[in-house]
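SAMPLE LOG
Freezer: B-3
Tube label: C17
Construct: single chain, 110 aa
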Amino acid sequence: MIVKAETKYIRISPTKVRQVMDLIRDKDVLEAQAVLDNLNKRPCEYLIKILRSAVANAKLKGFNPEQLYVSKIICNVGPVWKRFKAAAFGRATPIKRRTAHIRIELDIKN
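STRUCTURE (predicted):
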């Protein structure tokens, strides 16, 4: 691990994020950015921000972004916001609003 970037408490389901994460795992940084820019899914906007943050951290440490690749990307489950919605016959049905913690680690290509 050369550099990392992490964000927490993102208001999106981790299962949706993991579908997009699998597309950029073990790819070059520039190739991963191109994939995320051309994909029409909601998690892409969050992943692009985190990837750009990791690249900026790498530049501060003196690394060239063309030498880096996504070595590790993880999406963990965050806390679930529990709400209730009115249902028929005076009942209430639960709503789970899920959150996610995303972490990206970049490393140098061998």
